[in-house]
Amino acid sequence: MSPSKKDGDYAIAQERTSESSSHTRLNEASSSEGKTEKTSPPTSVYERKLKLLNEAMQNIGFGKYHRRLFIVSGFGWFVDSSLPLLAALILAPIISEFKIKGPYLILALRLGFFFGACFWGPISDIKGRRWPFTLTLLIASVFTLASGGSLTFPVLATLIALAGFGVGGNIPVDSAVFLEFMPSTHRYLLTVLAIFWSLGQIFVDLLAWSLMPKYSCQLGASACPSAQNMGWRYVLIISGGVSFVFWVGRFFMFHLYESPRYLLGRGQDAQAVDVVQAIAKFNGVPCSLTLEDLKASETMGVNEPSGKSGSDGLKYILQRLQDLFSPRKAAVSTTLLVFIWSTIHLATVLYISFLPYLLVSRGSEFGDASLAVAYRNQLIITCSGLLAPLIAGLMIEMPIVGRRRGLAAFSFLTGAFLLASTTSRTSNVLLAWNCGFSFAHNAMYAVLGNFTAEVFPTRSRGTGNALVSLFSRLAGVVGPLMALYLNIITATPIYIAGGLTLLAGVLVLLVPYESRRMDLQ
Protein backbone atom coordinates (compact mmCIF):
# COMPACT_ATOMS: atom_id res chain seq x y z
CA MET A 1 0.00 0.00 0.00
CA SER A 2 1.38 3.39 -0.91
CA PRO A 3 1.73 6.14 1.69
CA SER A 4 -1.31 8.33 2.24
CA LYS A 5 -1.38 11.74 0.59
CA LYS A 6 -3.44 13.58 3.18
CA ASP A 7 -2.54 17.22 3.33
CA GLY A 8 -2.55 17.18 7.10
CA ASP A 9 0.48 14.93 7.09
CA TYR A 10 2.55 17.69 5.53
CA ALA A 11 1.86 20.59 7.88
CA ILE A 12 5.02 22.25 9.13
CA ALA A 13 5.97 23.27 12.62
CA GLN A 14 6.93 26.94 13.01
CA GLU A 15 9.15 27.73 15.87
CA ARG A 16 12.09 26.08 17.53
CA THR A 17 11.89 24.90 21.10
CA SER A 18 12.38 27.38 23.93
CA GLU A 19 15.82 27.78 25.45
CA SER A 20 14.92 25.36 28.20
CA SER A 21 14.03 22.78 25.55
CA SER A 22 17.40 23.29 23.86
CA HIS A 23 19.18 22.64 27.12
CA THR A 24 17.22 19.50 27.89
CA ARG A 25 16.90 17.95 24.44
CA LEU A 26 19.45 15.37 25.51
CA ASN A 27 18.00 14.87 28.93
CA GLU A 28 19.98 11.76 29.60
CA ALA A 29 23.51 12.73 28.60
CA SER A 30 26.02 10.23 29.86
CA SER A 31 29.33 11.12 31.36
CA SER A 32 32.62 9.82 30.05
CA GLU A 33 32.41 7.09 32.68
CA GLY A 34 29.27 5.72 31.06
CA LYS A 35 26.97 6.71 33.92
CA THR A 36 23.65 8.40 33.24
CA GLU A 37 23.29 11.96 34.40
CA LYS A 38 19.68 13.12 34.69
CA THR A 39 18.99 16.74 33.94
CA SER A 40 15.91 18.73 34.89
CA PRO A 41 12.52 17.25 33.97
CA PRO A 42 10.80 18.48 30.79
CA THR A 43 9.47 22.01 31.18
CA SER A 44 8.08 22.88 27.74
CA VAL A 45 4.79 21.62 26.33
CA TYR A 46 6.61 19.85 23.51
CA GLU A 47 8.94 18.06 25.91
CA ARG A 48 6.06 16.88 28.08
CA LYS A 49 4.19 15.57 25.07
CA LEU A 50 7.28 13.87 23.72
CA LYS A 51 7.86 12.17 27.06
CA LEU A 52 4.33 10.73 26.93
CA LEU A 53 4.83 9.59 23.34
CA ASN A 54 8.20 7.98 24.15
CA GLU A 55 6.60 6.09 27.04
CA ALA A 56 3.80 4.87 24.75
CA MET A 57 6.30 3.69 22.12
CA GLN A 58 8.27 1.90 24.83
CA ASN A 59 5.12 0.19 26.16
CA ILE A 60 4.22 -1.01 22.65
CA GLY A 61 7.66 -2.56 22.39
CA PHE A 62 9.27 -4.20 19.37
CA GLY A 63 6.74 -6.10 17.30
CA LYS A 64 5.61 -7.16 13.85
CA TYR A 65 5.57 -3.64 12.41
CA HIS A 66 9.12 -2.98 13.59
CA ARG A 67 10.40 -6.24 12.13
CA ARG A 68 8.98 -5.34 8.73
CA LEU A 69 10.38 -1.83 9.00
CA PHE A 70 13.79 -3.37 9.74
CA ILE A 71 13.64 -5.28 6.44
CA VAL A 72 12.48 -2.43 4.19
CA SER A 73 14.93 -0.03 5.84
CA GLY A 74 17.66 -2.54 5.14
CA PHE A 75 16.95 -2.17 1.43
CA GLY A 76 18.32 1.37 1.70
CA TRP A 77 21.56 0.19 3.31
CA PHE A 78 21.86 -2.49 0.62
CA VAL A 79 21.64 0.03 -2.22
CA ASP A 80 23.74 2.64 -0.43
CA SER A 81 26.64 0.21 -0.17
CA SER A 82 26.29 -1.43 -3.57
CA LEU A 83 26.42 1.67 -5.79
CA PRO A 84 29.85 2.99 -4.63
CA LEU A 85 31.29 -0.51 -4.86
CA LEU A 86 29.76 -0.95 -8.32
CA ALA A 87 31.60 2.14 -9.50
CA ALA A 88 34.83 0.77 -8.07
CA LEU A 89 34.35 -2.71 -9.53
CA ILE A 90 33.66 -1.52 -13.08
CA LEU A 91 36.54 0.95 -13.05
CA ALA A 92 39.18 -1.23 -14.73
CA PRO A 93 36.97 -2.31 -17.70
CA ILE A 94 35.71 1.25 -18.15
CA ILE A 95 39.24 2.63 -18.26
CA SER A 96 40.06 0.01 -20.90
CA GLU A 97 37.02 0.86 -23.03
CA PHE A 98 36.75 4.65 -22.75
CA LYS A 99 40.44 5.47 -22.15
CA ILE A 100 39.62 7.91 -19.34
CA LYS A 101 41.13 8.59 -15.94
CA GLY A 102 39.37 6.38 -13.41
CA PRO A 103 38.82 9.05 -10.75
CA TYR A 104 36.45 10.92 -13.08
CA LEU A 105 33.79 8.22 -12.71
CA ILE A 106 34.16 8.25 -8.92
CA LEU A 107 33.97 12.05 -9.01
CA ALA A 108 30.67 11.96 -10.93
CA LEU A 109 29.19 9.54 -8.41
CA ARG A 110 30.38 11.56 -5.42
CA LEU A 111 28.95 14.77 -6.88
CA GLY A 112 25.59 13.01 -7.08
CA PHE A 113 25.97 11.93 -3.46
CA PHE A 114 26.76 15.50 -2.45
CA PHE A 115 23.71 17.09 -4.07
CA GLY A 116 21.51 14.28 -2.78
CA ALA A 117 22.68 14.94 0.76
CA CYS A 118 22.00 18.66 0.32
CA PHE A 119 18.44 18.01 -0.84
CA TRP A 120 16.87 15.00 0.85
CA GLY A 121 17.69 15.59 4.52
CA PRO A 122 16.16 19.09 4.74
CA ILE A 123 13.20 17.96 2.62
CA SER A 124 12.51 15.19 5.14
CA ASP A 125 12.30 17.80 7.91
CA ILE A 126 10.00 20.04 5.84
CA LYS A 127 7.75 17.60 3.98
CA GLY A 128 7.99 14.52 6.13
CA ARG A 129 9.95 11.28 6.16
CA ARG A 130 7.72 9.02 4.06
CA TRP A 131 8.07 10.31 0.53
CA PRO A 132 11.86 10.79 0.67
CA PHE A 133 12.03 7.26 2.14
CA THR A 134 10.35 5.99 -1.02
CA LEU A 135 11.68 8.30 -3.72
CA THR A 136 15.39 8.02 -2.91
CA LEU A 137 15.33 4.28 -3.58
CA LEU A 138 13.29 4.71 -6.77
CA ILE A 139 15.69 7.30 -8.22
CA ALA A 140 18.75 5.21 -7.35
CA SER A 141 17.32 2.06 -8.93
CA VAL A 142 16.05 3.64 -12.16
CA PHE A 143 19.27 5.46 -13.01
CA THR A 144 21.50 2.53 -12.04
CA LEU A 145 19.44 0.39 -14.39
CA ALA A 146 19.66 2.99 -17.16
CA SER A 147 23.43 3.42 -16.76
CA GLY A 148 23.92 -0.14 -17.96
CA GLY A 149 22.93 1.00 -21.45
CA SER A 150 25.59 3.72 -21.67
CA LEU A 151 27.59 3.80 -24.91
CA THR A 152 29.79 6.80 -24.02
CA PHE A 153 31.53 7.88 -20.86
CA PRO A 154 29.67 11.25 -20.52
CA VAL A 155 26.33 9.40 -20.58
CA LEU A 156 27.58 6.85 -18.06
CA ALA A 157 28.94 9.54 -15.72
CA THR A 158 25.68 11.53 -15.91
CA LEU A 159 23.47 8.54 -15.14
CA ILE A 160 25.75 7.38 -12.32
CA ALA A 161 25.63 10.89 -10.84
CA LEU A 162 21.80 10.87 -10.97
CA ALA A 163 21.73 7.48 -9.26
CA GLY A 164 24.08 8.97 -6.66
CA PHE A 165 21.61 11.82 -6.13
CA GLY A 166 19.07 9.27 -4.92
CA VAL A 167 21.55 7.32 -2.83
CA GLY A 168 22.96 10.53 -1.33
CA GLY A 169 19.77 11.06 0.66
CA ASN A 170 19.08 7.42 1.38
CA ILE A 171 20.81 6.76 4.68
CA PRO A 172 20.10 10.18 6.30
CA VAL A 173 16.38 9.69 5.69
CA ASP A 174 16.23 5.95 6.35
CA SER A 175 18.11 6.19 9.63
CA ALA A 176 15.77 8.94 10.87
CA VAL A 177 12.70 6.90 9.90
CA PHE A 178 13.96 3.72 11.55
CA LEU A 179 15.17 5.35 14.75
CA GLU A 180 11.99 7.36 15.33
CA PHE A 181 9.82 4.23 15.31
CA MET A 182 12.04 2.21 17.64
CA PRO A 183 11.50 1.81 21.39
CA SER A 184 14.61 2.84 23.30
CA THR A 185 15.45 -0.79 24.11
CA HIS A 186 15.92 -1.59 20.41
CA ARG A 187 17.68 1.49 19.07
CA TYR A 188 20.89 -0.54 18.77
CA LEU A 189 19.24 -2.26 15.79
CA LEU A 190 20.14 0.82 13.76
CA THR A 191 23.72 -0.44 14.04
CA VAL A 192 22.70 -4.01 13.18
CA LEU A 193 20.94 -2.70 10.05
CA ALA A 194 24.38 -2.25 8.54
CA ILE A 195 24.38 -6.01 7.91
CA PHE A 196 22.41 -5.08 4.80
CA TRP A 197 25.37 -2.88 3.88
CA SER A 198 27.58 -5.95 3.81
CA LEU A 199 24.96 -7.98 1.94
CA GLY A 200 24.78 -5.29 -0.75
CA GLN A 201 28.53 -5.42 -1.20
CA ILE A 202 28.60 -9.22 -1.29
CA PHE A 203 25.86 -9.20 -3.93
CA VAL A 204 27.71 -6.90 -6.34
CA ASP A 205 31.00 -8.68 -5.64
CA LEU A 206 29.38 -11.96 -6.68
CA LEU A 207 27.97 -10.31 -9.80
CA ALA A 208 31.34 -8.89 -10.74
CA TRP A 209 33.23 -12.12 -10.06
CA SER A 210 30.77 -14.22 -12.09
CA LEU A 211 30.30 -11.89 -15.08
CA MET A 212 33.14 -9.44 -15.57
CA PRO A 213 36.13 -11.76 -16.08
CA LYS A 214 34.15 -13.60 -18.77
CA TYR A 215 32.66 -10.55 -20.49
CA SER A 216 35.50 -8.01 -20.23
CA CYS A 217 38.47 -7.13 -22.40
CA GLN A 218 41.81 -8.65 -21.52
CA LEU A 219 44.00 -6.60 -19.20
CA GLY A 220 46.39 -4.43 -21.21
CA ALA A 221 44.48 -4.80 -24.48
CA SER A 222 45.20 -1.95 -26.90
CA ALA A 223 41.59 -1.87 -28.16
CA CYS A 224 38.46 -2.62 -26.16
CA PRO A 225 35.20 -2.36 -28.16
CA SER A 226 31.93 -2.36 -26.23
CA ALA A 227 30.83 -5.67 -27.77
CA GLN A 228 33.75 -7.37 -26.02
CA ASN A 229 33.29 -5.44 -22.78
CA MET A 230 29.66 -6.05 -21.78
CA GLY A 231 30.38 -7.36 -18.28
CA TRP A 232 30.15 -4.04 -16.47
CA ARG A 233 26.89 -3.29 -18.29
CA TYR A 234 25.36 -6.59 -17.18
CA VAL A 235 26.39 -5.88 -13.60
CA LEU A 236 24.78 -2.42 -13.60
CA ILE A 237 21.56 -3.66 -15.20
CA ILE A 238 21.13 -6.56 -12.79
CA SER A 239 21.99 -4.43 -9.76
CA GLY A 240 19.58 -1.70 -10.83
CA GLY A 241 16.87 -4.29 -11.42
CA VAL A 242 17.27 -5.73 -7.93
CA SER A 243 17.14 -2.22 -6.45
CA PHE A 244 13.92 -1.58 -8.37
CA VAL A 245 12.40 -4.74 -6.87
CA PHE A 246 13.33 -3.38 -3.44
CA TRP A 247 11.50 -0.16 -4.25
CA VAL A 248 8.41 -2.13 -5.27
CA GLY A 249 8.55 -3.88 -1.90
CA ARG A 250 8.80 -0.59 -0.04
CA PHE A 251 6.04 1.16 -1.95
CA PHE A 252 3.43 -1.54 -2.56
CA MET A 253 4.00 -4.16 0.14
CA PHE A 254 4.61 -2.08 3.26
CA HIS A 255 2.57 0.79 4.69
CA LEU A 256 4.95 3.31 6.21
CA TYR A 257 3.27 5.67 8.63
CA GLU A 258 4.68 9.12 9.13
CA SER A 259 7.03 9.23 12.12
CA PRO A 260 4.94 10.02 15.23
CA ARG A 261 7.86 11.84 16.82
CA TYR A 262 8.18 13.94 13.69
CA LEU A 263 4.44 14.70 13.63
CA LEU A 264 4.55 15.76 17.26
CA GLY A 265 7.42 18.11 16.49
CA ARG A 266 5.27 19.80 13.86
CA GLY A 267 2.30 20.20 16.19
CA GLN A 268 0.26 17.40 14.60
CA ASP A 269 -0.77 15.78 17.89
CA ALA A 270 -3.85 13.97 16.59
CA GLN A 271 -1.95 12.38 13.71
CA ALA A 272 0.88 11.35 16.05
CA VAL A 273 -1.57 9.60 18.38
CA ASP A 274 -3.29 7.91 15.43
CA VAL A 275 0.05 6.50 14.23
CA VAL A 276 1.01 5.18 17.67
CA GLN A 277 -2.39 3.52 18.06
CA ALA A 278 -2.19 2.05 14.54
CA ILE A 279 1.23 0.52 15.26
CA ALA A 280 -0.05 -0.92 18.54
CA LYS A 281 -3.05 -2.44 16.74
CA PHE A 282 -0.81 -3.90 14.02
CA ASN A 283 1.45 -5.42 16.69
CA GLY A 284 -1.56 -6.77 18.60
CA VAL A 285 -0.85 -4.89 21.83
CA PRO A 286 -2.88 -2.28 23.74
CA CYS A 287 -2.09 1.44 23.64
CA SER A 288 -3.33 3.83 26.30
CA LEU A 289 -2.05 7.05 24.71
CA THR A 290 -4.87 9.45 23.76
CA LEU A 291 -5.08 12.93 22.34
CA GLU A 292 -6.49 14.07 25.68
CA ASP A 293 -3.26 12.96 27.37
CA LEU A 294 -1.27 15.26 25.10
CA LYS A 295 -3.75 18.11 25.48
CA ALA A 296 -3.41 17.89 29.25
CA SER A 297 0.28 18.76 28.88
CA GLU A 298 -0.69 22.13 27.43
CA THR A 299 -1.76 23.34 30.86
CA MET A 300 1.76 22.87 32.21
CA GLY A 301 5.16 24.20 31.21
CA VAL A 302 6.21 26.71 28.58
CA ASN A 303 3.88 26.87 25.59
CA GLU A 304 5.22 26.81 22.05
CA PRO A 305 3.84 27.95 18.71
CA SER A 306 2.11 25.23 16.71
CA GLY A 307 2.97 24.16 13.18
CA LYS A 308 1.84 25.87 9.99
CA SER A 309 2.14 25.08 6.36
CA GLY A 310 5.47 24.62 4.66
CA SER A 311 5.61 27.93 2.77
CA ASP A 312 8.43 29.18 4.97
CA GLY A 313 10.61 26.10 4.48
CA LEU A 314 13.91 28.01 4.43
CA LYS A 315 13.10 29.71 7.72
CA TYR A 316 12.17 26.35 9.19
CA ILE A 317 15.46 24.77 8.13
CA LEU A 318 17.43 27.70 9.57
CA GLN A 319 15.61 27.18 12.86
CA ARG A 320 16.47 23.49 12.80
CA LEU A 321 20.12 24.39 12.18
CA GLN A 322 20.01 26.73 15.17
CA ASP A 323 18.80 23.82 17.31
CA LEU A 324 21.86 21.83 16.27
CA PHE A 325 24.21 24.55 17.53
CA SER A 326 22.45 25.62 20.71
CA PRO A 327 23.44 25.38 23.54
CA ARG A 328 27.24 25.38 23.41
CA LYS A 329 27.53 21.69 24.25
CA ALA A 330 25.32 20.82 21.28
CA ALA A 331 27.41 23.09 19.05
CA VAL A 332 30.59 21.26 20.08
CA SER A 333 28.93 17.91 19.43
CA THR A 334 27.58 18.88 15.99
CA THR A 335 30.90 20.42 14.91
CA LEU A 336 32.85 17.34 15.97
CA LEU A 337 30.41 15.03 14.18
CA VAL A 338 30.84 17.04 10.98
CA PHE A 339 34.62 16.63 11.19
CA ILE A 340 34.35 12.94 12.10
CA TRP A 341 32.10 12.15 9.17
CA SER A 342 34.26 14.18 6.79
CA THR A 343 37.56 12.58 7.78
CA ILE A 344 36.17 9.05 7.75
CA HIS A 345 34.46 9.52 4.41
CA LEU A 346 37.51 11.05 2.76
CA ALA A 347 39.58 8.12 3.99
CA THR A 348 36.98 5.68 2.71
CA VAL A 349 36.83 7.23 -0.75
CA LEU A 350 40.61 7.38 -1.04
CA TYR A 351 40.89 3.66 -0.37
CA ILE A 352 37.71 1.66 -0.95
CA SER A 353 36.69 3.47 -4.15
CA PHE A 354 39.90 2.28 -5.78
CA LEU A 355 40.41 -1.02 -3.92
CA PRO A 356 39.34 -3.37 -6.77
CA TYR A 357 41.57 -1.45 -9.19
CA LEU A 358 44.35 -1.56 -6.58
CA LEU A 359 43.97 -5.34 -6.27
CA VAL A 360 44.35 -5.71 -10.04
CA SER A 361 47.36 -3.37 -10.17
CA ARG A 362 49.12 -4.86 -7.15
CA GLY A 363 48.44 -8.30 -8.60
CA SER A 364 50.57 -7.32 -11.58
CA GLU A 365 53.33 -6.31 -9.18
CA PHE A 366 53.02 -9.58 -7.23
CA GLY A 367 52.87 -11.68 -10.41
CA ASP A 368 49.29 -13.01 -10.17
CA ALA A 369 47.27 -10.38 -12.02
CA SER A 370 43.81 -11.30 -13.34
CA LEU A 371 40.30 -9.92 -13.04
CA ALA A 372 39.07 -13.25 -11.68
CA VAL A 373 41.59 -13.25 -8.81
CA ALA A 374 40.99 -9.58 -8.03
CA TYR A 375 37.20 -9.98 -7.87
CA ARG A 376 37.52 -13.19 -5.85
CA ASN A 377 39.71 -11.40 -3.31
CA GLN A 378 37.30 -8.47 -3.24
CA LEU A 379 34.47 -10.90 -2.40
CA ILE A 380 36.52 -12.46 0.42
CA ILE A 381 37.28 -9.00 1.80
CA THR A 382 33.61 -8.04 1.75
CA CYS A 383 32.48 -11.28 3.42
CA SER A 384 34.95 -10.60 6.23
CA GLY A 385 32.84 -7.63 7.30
CA LEU A 386 29.46 -9.35 7.17
CA LEU A 387 29.02 -9.94 10.90
CA ALA A 388 30.74 -6.73 11.98
CA PRO A 389 27.51 -4.70 12.42
CA LEU A 390 25.93 -7.43 14.56
CA ILE A 391 28.99 -7.70 16.80
CA ALA A 392 29.25 -3.91 16.98
CA GLY A 393 25.55 -3.65 17.88
CA LEU A 394 26.06 -6.01 20.81
CA MET A 395 29.25 -4.28 21.95
CA ILE A 396 27.82 -0.76 22.07
CA GLU A 397 25.04 -1.96 24.39
CA MET A 398 27.67 -2.90 26.98
CA PRO A 399 27.94 -0.14 29.62
CA ILE A 400 31.74 -0.33 29.63
CA VAL A 401 31.83 0.32 25.87
CA GLY A 402 28.83 2.37 24.77
CA ARG A 403 28.51 4.23 21.49
CA ARG A 404 31.42 6.62 21.86
CA ARG A 405 34.13 4.24 23.03
CA GLY A 406 32.97 1.60 20.57
CA LEU A 407 33.17 4.03 17.66
CA ALA A 408 36.61 5.24 18.72
CA ALA A 409 37.92 1.68 19.07
CA PHE A 410 36.71 0.63 15.62
CA SER A 411 38.14 3.83 14.11
CA PHE A 412 41.56 3.08 15.58
CA LEU A 413 41.39 -0.52 14.33
CA THR A 414 40.42 0.62 10.83
CA GLY A 415 43.33 3.04 10.65
CA ALA A 416 45.75 0.45 11.99
CA PHE A 417 44.75 -2.17 9.38
CA LEU A 418 45.03 0.41 6.61
CA LEU A 419 48.56 1.37 7.59
CA ALA A 420 49.56 -2.25 8.09
CA SER A 421 48.45 -3.11 4.54
CA THR A 422 51.31 -0.99 3.17
CA THR A 423 53.76 -3.65 4.40
CA SER A 424 52.27 -6.33 2.09
CA ARG A 425 54.67 -8.10 -0.24
CA THR A 426 52.28 -10.77 -1.57
CA SER A 427 48.63 -10.85 -2.61
CA ASN A 428 47.73 -13.16 0.28
CA VAL A 429 49.21 -10.81 2.88
CA LEU A 430 47.43 -7.85 1.29
CA LEU A 431 44.22 -9.88 1.36
CA ALA A 432 44.63 -10.68 5.06
CA TRP A 433 45.14 -7.04 6.07
CA ASN A 434 42.16 -6.00 3.98
CA CYS A 435 39.95 -8.60 5.63
CA GLY A 436 40.77 -7.06 9.00
CA PHE A 437 40.15 -3.62 7.55
CA SER A 438 36.76 -4.69 6.17
CA PHE A 439 35.56 -5.95 9.56
CA ALA A 440 36.68 -2.86 11.47
CA HIS A 441 35.47 -0.47 8.78
CA ASN A 442 31.96 -1.96 8.61
CA ALA A 443 31.67 -1.90 12.39
CA MET A 444 32.90 1.70 12.49
CA TYR A 445 30.35 2.93 9.96
CA ALA A 446 27.53 1.00 11.64
CA VAL A 447 28.18 2.60 15.02
CA LEU A 448 28.77 6.03 13.48
CA GLY A 449 25.32 6.10 11.90
CA ASN A 450 23.63 4.97 15.09
CA PHE A 451 25.52 7.38 17.34
CA THR A 452 24.89 10.37 15.08
CA ALA A 453 21.15 9.79 14.69
CA GLU A 454 20.69 9.37 18.44
CA VAL A 455 22.52 12.57 19.34
CA PHE A 456 20.42 14.83 17.08
CA PRO A 457 16.96 15.92 18.34
CA THR A 458 13.88 14.66 16.48
CA ARG A 459 12.79 17.96 14.97
CA SER A 460 16.28 18.53 13.59
CA ARG A 461 17.30 14.93 12.93
CA GLY A 462 16.74 15.06 9.18
CA THR A 463 18.62 18.35 8.94
CA GLY A 464 21.38 17.11 11.26
CA ASN A 465 21.81 13.88 9.33
CA ALA A 466 21.84 15.92 6.13
CA LEU A 467 24.46 18.29 7.54
CA VAL A 468 26.98 15.58 8.40
CA SER A 469 26.12 13.72 5.21
CA LEU A 470 26.61 16.89 3.16
CA PHE A 471 30.11 17.47 4.52
CA SER A 472 31.00 13.80 4.22
CA ARG A 473 29.80 13.79 0.62
CA LEU A 474 31.81 16.95 0.01
CA ALA A 475 34.84 15.11 1.35
CA GLY A 476 33.88 12.32 -1.03
CA VAL A 477 34.19 14.79 -3.91
CA VAL A 478 37.62 15.85 -2.67
CA GLY A 479 38.80 12.22 -2.65
CA PRO A 480 38.69 11.63 -6.43
CA LEU A 481 40.19 15.08 -7.03
CA MET A 482 43.12 14.09 -4.82
CA ALA A 483 43.35 10.77 -6.66
CA LEU A 484 43.78 12.60 -9.96
CA TYR A 485 47.08 13.97 -8.64
CA LEU A 486 48.15 10.98 -6.54
CA ASN A 487 49.28 7.64 -7.87
CA ILE A 488 46.42 5.50 -6.56
CA ILE A 489 48.42 2.26 -6.73
CA THR A 490 51.13 3.57 -4.40
CA ALA A 491 51.05 3.70 -0.60
CA THR A 492 50.52 7.48 -0.44
CA PRO A 493 46.68 7.45 -0.50
CA ILE A 494 46.71 4.63 2.06
CA TYR A 495 48.91 6.61 4.46
CA ILE A 496 46.55 9.56 4.15
CA ALA A 497 43.46 7.38 4.65
CA GLY A 498 44.96 5.62 7.66
CA GLY A 499 45.99 8.87 9.31
CA LEU A 500 42.55 10.42 8.76
CA THR A 501 40.81 7.43 10.33
CA LEU A 502 43.06 7.53 13.39
CA LEU A 503 42.32 11.25 13.72
CA ALA A 504 38.59 10.51 13.58
CA GLY A 505 38.99 8.10 16.50
CA VAL A 506 40.53 10.86 18.61
CA LEU A 507 37.73 13.29 17.67
CA VAL A 508 35.08 10.75 18.69
CA LEU A 509 36.41 10.73 22.25
CA LEU A 510 35.93 14.50 22.40
CA VAL A 511 32.17 14.36 21.65
CA PRO A 512 30.46 15.50 24.90
CA TYR A 513 27.57 13.02 24.72
CA GLU A 514 27.24 9.28 25.23
CA SER A 515 23.92 8.36 23.60
CA ARG A 516 23.53 4.79 24.85
CA ARG A 517 20.72 5.53 27.30
CA MET A 518 19.52 8.93 26.10
CA ASP A 519 15.85 9.62 25.49
CA LEU A 520 15.09 10.67 21.92
CA GLN A 521 14.22 14.39 22.00
Name the CATH homologous superfamily. MFS general substrate transporter like domains
Helicity, in percent? Answer: 55-70%
- The CATH class is identified as Mainly Alpha
Average of pLDDT: 84
Low-confidence regions: 1-40, 305-311
CATH topology, which one? Growth Hormone, Chain: A
Total individual domains: 1
CATH arch. level architecture: Up-down Bundle
Subcellular location: Membrane
InterPro entries: MFS_dom (IPR020846), MFS_sugar_transport-like (IPR005828), MFS_trans_sf (IPR036259)
GO molecular function: transmembrane transporter activity
Membrane topology: Multi-pass membrane protein
What would you say about this model in short?
This protein is mainly alpha-helical. It contains 23 helices and two strands.
Structure description:
By secondary structure, this protein is mainly alpha-helical. The chain has one domain (64-253, 323-510): MFS general substrate transporter like domains (Growth Hormone, Chain: A). It has 23 helices and two strands. It has a two-stranded antiparallel ribbon with strand order 1-2. Strand 1 (28-30) and strand 2 form a beta hairpin. Helix 3 (64-89) packs antiparallel against helix 11 and helix 10 packs antiparallel against helix 18 (371-384). Residues 1-40 and 305-311 have low confidence and may be disordered. It is found in: Membrane.
